[in-house]
Amino acid sequence: MLDTARRLDDFIEEFTRNRADAMQRSIDRVTVKAVGTAKALDLLAESGIGVEGAIPLACHRGHVLIFAGWNHPDRTVPPAKLRTYRALLAQTRITKKVPNRMEDRARDAGLQVNLLAKKDDQTSRRDEVGRFAEAFGAFGLGETDIEQLLVSANTTIAYLTNPLGAVASAVVAERVTIDLEGHGSLVLVEITEAITRVEFRGQGLYRNLSGYIVDHIRFGEAGPLHAVFGECNLSSPGVIYAARRNGRRFVTDDAELYGGPHRPDLTFGILCQNFSVSDGVESRAYNDFALSYVDLTNCA
Ligand SMILES: CC(C)(COP(=O)(O)OP(=O)(O)OC[C@H]1O[C@@H](n2cnc3c(N)ncnc32)[C@H](O)[C@@H]1OP(=O)(O)O)[C@@H](O)C(=O)NCCC(=O)NCCS
Q: SS3 letters for 241-276?
């Protein structure tokens, strides 16, 4: 929690040390998340720490989840490409929110809606591992990674199956609870992996499924919730449209709220060359992602 000058200085010192260490060890990307005020955001940027974005936290008035990051100059995105991304994000800003119709959509496509959630025990979760091997392979996950993901009580997975039980589309949400000294705890949910098998694409399955999982997290699970966010693959415009249609906000929309050094920064709200997705589109080593979040106006 970057709420005092001392903690901010310590953070800057540690980040700078990690960055130098990374360079020496040929590591080309460093990312750290922290909590602070919009003022801390400015101070970090002024101290030369890359601020990749910030997400407002419900019930923590004035506090934001800060994404600090550094990329080696060989792992960056040309300004022309950043401008294309920003044009897509600006152009989709007028997209109207549409209600989620997952059940109807699945029925029309001959698919079944399934949910692995908090209430499901480890055995029933482990039984599902084989089903996800092909789908989650796109994110470089092997069987052991998939098992770990599935058995964790902090993972929620919404997925659609065809009559043979094969996964047509899946969206994963991961919950983390962080204790903040003197500020209680923070519950964050990240919508992580999302995939639709090639033959099922373009039917609105991902859009409905990602809306469905967010509705479940917000209204179907008890307990506090301070942020629901996602990193949207910028090489798939459908991901951006789907998030807009589901009413999510993009951090690029917010640069003017924070002002200061972030407003003119083309990368604010975009995680450049963050990690790799085998999406069949991106030809560079890694994908770029736009940070999006659900505007949580009610807090528990
Ligand atoms: C990205 C991915 C999950 C999308 O799956 P999908 O089921 O085909 O997506 P949808 O059909 O729901 O499309 C999303 C929305 O964007 C719209 N859309 C898609 N491409 C569009 C475009 N170029 N212009 C305008 N709208 C577009 C669709 O119409 C749909 O909205 P609608 O339901 O309101 O009509 C799929 O392409 C995939 O698995 N890619 C590889 C993995 C990946 O990149 N995952 C995302 C990580 S963030």
A: HHHHHCCCEEHHHHHHHHCHHHCCCCCCCEEEEEEC
Compute the C-alpha angle 209/267/226, nearest 5°.
45
Domain range annotation of the chain: 98-249+269-293
> Is the CB of 186 inside a 6 Å radius of any atom of ligand 1?
no
In angstroms, the Cα distances linking 259 to 28, 252, 265, 295 are: 28, 12, 10, 20
Give the CATH superfamily of 98-249+269-293: Gcn5-related N-acetyltransferase (GNAT) (3.40.630.30)
Of the candidates 224, 220, 232, the residue with the CA atom closest to the CA atom of residue 293: 232
Report the run of H or E that residue 56 belongs to, with start and end. Answer: strand 51-56
How far apart are the CA of 242 and the centre of ligand 1, in A? 6
Residues 76-119 pLDDT 10s: 999 999 999 999 999 999 999 999 899 999 999 999 999 998 77
State the distance from the centre of ligand 1 to the C-alpha of 65, rounded, in angstroms. 27
- DSSP H helical ranges for 75-117: 79-91, 102-108
CA–CA separation, 149 and 145 (whole Å):
6
Q: Is 298's pLDDT higher than 80?
A: no
